[in-house]
Amino acid sequence: MDVDIDRNGETTKEPKSKKHDSGTADLEKVTDYVEEADISSQSIGDAMKAVSDQQKLEAAERQVKEKELTKVKINKDDVDLIVNEMEIPRTVAEKTLRKHKGNLVEALVALTD
């Protein structure tokens, strides 16, 4: 029971409000379902292997893309134009041109975005 003091200094006893108690019960229901699991060294090893395998796969895919890009013919004058006008390294200019199959306009648009 809560004890309240009114303006006249008299004390009154009122039953405690139960509106705050319902939240506690709900919280206990939620936390009942959570179980703590021990992390074993095997599960850490499996996770590290999965990450390593994913990185190797991504590296292999990048190499394949790079090989395909080197096959694209680009014009030296286009590369010079991009390097001089955009003031970027030659390798970036060549790579951008190759990605856009040698199309100068598309490469310039991509570099300005």
Distance between the termini: 68 Å
Tally of DSSP β-strands:
2
Biggest sheet architecture: 2 strands, antiparallel
Structural class: mainly alpha
Strand content: 5-15%
Helix content: 55-70%
Query: What is the typical, i.e. mean, pLDDT?
Result: 81
Low-confidence stretches: none
Number of helices: 5
Assign an overall shape: elongated
| Rg estimate, integer Å | 34 Å
Strand order of the largest sheet: 1-2
Number of structural units classed as domains? 1
Order of helices and strands: EEHHHHH
Detailed description of the structure:
The protein has one domain. It has helices at about 20-30, 40-70, 75-85, 90-100, 105-110, and strands at about 1-5, 10-15. A hairpin with a 5-residue loop joins strand 1 and strand 2. The mean pLDDT is about 80. The N and C termini lie far apart (about 70 Å). The protein contains five helices and two strands. Helices cover about 65% and strands about 5% of the residues. The chain is mainly α and about 110 residues long. The chain is elongated, with a radius of gyration of 34 Å. Strands 1-2 form a two-stranded antiparallel ribbon. Helix 3 packs across helix 4 and helix 4 (about 90-100) crosses helix 5 (about 105-110).
How would you describe this structure in keywords?
about 110 residues, mainly alpha, two-stranded antiparallel ribbon, 5 helices, 2 strands, about 65% helix
Map the helices and strands.
Elements: E1 2-5, E2 11-14, H1 21-32, H2 41-70, H3 76-86, H4 90-99, H5 104-112
Antiparallel strand pairs: 1-2
InterPro entries: Huntingtin-int_K, HYPK_UBA, NAC-like_UBA
Keywords: Coiled coil
Region (Disordered): 1-27
